[in-house]
Structures are given as C-alpha cells and as structure tokens.
Amino acid sequence: MRLSRRGLVALGLVAALGALPACSKDANDSNTSGGNKVEVFSWWTGPGEQEGLDAMIADFKKNNSGIEFVNAAVSGGAGTNAKAILANRLQANDPPDSYQRHAGLELADDIKAGKVSDLTYLYDQQGWKDKLPKGLLDAITIDGKIYAVPVNIHRANLLWYQPKTLQAVGIAAPPKTWSEFLTQAEQIKAKGKTALSIGPGWTQKHLLETVILGELGPDAYTGLWNGKTDWKSAQVTAALDTYKKVLSYSDIGSAAADWQPALDKVLDGSAVYNVMGDWAAGYLANTKKLAFSTDFNVVATPGSEGVYDFLSDSFTLPVNAKNKAAAEKWLIECGSTAGQDAFNPQKGSVPARTDADKSKYTDYLATAMKEWQDPKTRIVGSLAHGVVANNAVGTEIDTALGLFIQDKDSGKFAAAVAKAIQDNK
Fold first, then answer.
1. Start-to-end Cα distance in the chain
2. Tell me: the pLDDT tens digits for 38-69?
3. At how many degrees (to 10) do helices 234-248 and 410-423 cross?
4. Phi/psi at 97 (5° precision)
C-alpha cells in the first residue's frame, strides 16, 4: 500500500491524460443495468497486492461466471498515477464501474462532486454493519451515508525494532509511553545509536499522528477531527511539544528517502526504533527474509496499546457506472468473507470483517487479526493515510508540518491546522 511517495507525476503521464477521450455518453444515458462486464480500477500491481487482487478476481469469477472482469489497474507511484488518470475520467463523466480509494475522508471530494453512489442499501442487504467494528463504520460513514466497501485493514500505530539491538543497548522492552521513550532515547544516545529512524515528510506526519494519539488517547484524538477536541488547547500543545522532543532524538537531519531505507537503519543496528504501518511486516518478512519475533518484532506505538489506528483500501460505485448490476456484484465480492480471505493473506493486511477465517493469517498477521477482531480494541482513523482528513485539509497540514519542523512553534502549527479544518468543512 505504501511502497513510495512521489510528489510529481511524470510528464509522459500528463501527456497521456490529455490524450484520453472524453465521455461519449451523456451522464443520463449511461447503461446502469448492465451485468455482463465490470471494469474495476485500482493501483494494485505490486508484489503481494497483485497476487491478492488476482485471488479475489478468481473468486469473483467462480461466483459470477457470466460476467467479464476488466482489470483496469494502473501501476506506478503507489497510486499517484492511478489517481491522476481516475481524476481525468471522473471529470469526463467516464468512470470505471468501480474504483479504489482509501476509506474515510479521502473520498469526501468525490462525494461532494456527486461522483459516487450511497451504498448504505448494500450494507443493509448484505448485513455488513453487523460484521464490521463500530469504529470502522463510524470512520467510513459520512453525513449518515456509506459510499465505499472496505476490503482490508492496515494498522498505522506500530513501533518496529530488532530484539538483538534492544539487548545490545541494555533495554529490556520497548517503551509503553512517549515519556518512557524519551528516557530510553537518552540511554540509546549514550550508546552511540539513533533512537528513532525517520523518512520523508509523509513519514513525519505518520509519526505525528501516533505521538498525538499516544498522548491524548483515542477519544481526544478522534475529537481533533470531529470538532470535540480544541486544537489550540493546552493538552494538544503539550502533545505537540512531546512530538518535538521525539524528533530531537531522530535522524531527521539526514532523513531517509522513503520508509524502507529508514527501516533499514533499524536492521543494520544504527537506529533502534522505527514507526511505520504494518506493511513493514511484508517488507521485513518477504523482502528481507527475516523471521517475525526473533529477527524483528513490533508493538503498538507508545500510549496506544489496545488502539487500532487504521487505514483501508475500499471500492466504490460511481454514479455513472455503465454496468451497475455487475459493479454491485463486485462490491459484494469485496465485502464478503471469501473475497477478503482470498485477498488479505497475499496483501499482508487483515480483513475488515470480524468473522474472517483466522487460520489463514500467521506470524504478524495472526497478532493483527486477534486485535482487530477483539471487541475491546478501540478503532481510530489515520491522518497520514486519508481516513480522518479530506485532501484539502491533508495538504494544508503537510505545509504547516513542514514549517513546524523548522520553527518548532507548537501554537502556530495548532492554529494552522484548526484553520485548515474550519476552512474546508
């Protein structure tokens, strides 16, 4: 899901966008009753995700033998290229029959523009509301309606480390709070190592949400996005001050180019900890061929034990889908136990449903599945990965965070975020 982040799309892609044909039908003329073909648009072309999509397509075809599946996946840019092409198609009123988005407010612009259909009726028909955690349902419900079907769940609030490195610096266990992290960081510094490795801007935003979550707790953290927590309050300022202290023990001055090389510093022992989502497990186990719990291990980020800071891939039903009936069948596949169990073991994520087959998930995924299915687990949404803030707010936070890293003015940053949220309601 998060293989890389690129700020620019290649000039060749821009040229390709200009060459795409406009929609040949008026929006009211589209065939919404078609059922013999479905075009599904995603960015799932990389290792793991491609195999997962193929497995889900195979299950779909088994259950819908009369429907031709058109895989319109676009590679490159961890979704950047796909999103650019999709934007052009939506603007031209020529949408695919279903397309991928991150669950949550990343979809808000499409909803506001009237590009996607309300799928609440499908949730009621399929009984999905009883199979998804309340925290997830709350996060994907916008103004009382649900516009996408989540296929998987990734967890953002994770702290990765190597047991042998902890032993080498004389630390018995990872920190339970950010205050404990800061104490450990002094000990790590005295040993000549970096306490926390970090990557580019988006990983710094990812770290920010985990520090705020750990300092405020899930209720106040969620309140930052629904208006119940004041960004300019003393508790938020204190959390931001903690974030500054955490950064002071990182290698931000020589930040890695992306999350993989930042994590590599933990592997080579020059850094002790790294905050990253659970896609890191696939990188460590599959790419680096390391053994979970012995060669590498993971805990919830400080202060967030029992909390699942989630992000999710989901699929939509565009308003002008040419093959609505077939698209509904695809969405039913996405929301089904069989579909999610076909996809997620390959992708390295867990199903959104709480009734999935636990036997299919091993090593890290077994621990993730246990927590996700535990009714006591609190669910909150990720900032850095599109759940709790729409695109406009996310962009303004990126700008404000870049300044905050430089000037370290907690009050100024909090005021900027509060204004961004107010201005983009």
1. 28
2. 999 999 987 788 899 999 999 999 999 999 99
3. 120
4. -75, -25
One-letter identity of residue 103: A
Which residue type sits at 48? G
Q: State the pTM of this model.
A: 0.84
d(CA 106, CA 315): 12
CA distance 386 to 44: 17
Q: How far is CA 417 from the centre of its chain?
A: 20
The CA distance from 215 to 56, in Å, is 39
- Asked whether 78 and 44 are in contact (CB, 8 A), the reply is no
> Residues with Cβ < 8 Å from 344, sequence gap 6 or more?
52, 151, 152, 350, 351, 356, 360, 361, 365
Interval 373-410: pLDDT, tens = 899 999 999 999 989 999 899 999 999 999 999 999 99
CB 97 within 8 A of CB 326: yes
Number of other residues whose CB lies within 10 A of the CB of residue 263: 23
What is the full DSSP assignment across 242-270?
HHHHHHHTB-GGG--SSHHHHHHHHHTTS
**Burial class, 54, CB count within 10 angstroms (exposed 0-12 / middle 13-18 / buried 19+):** middle
CA neighbor of 272 nearest in space, from 289, 249, 292, 255? 249
Q: Two tokens at 236?
A: 């938020």
Question: How many Cβ atoms are within 10 Å of 391's Cβ, its own excluded?
Answer: 16
Q: Residue 93 in contact with residue 27, Cβ under 8 Å?
A: yes
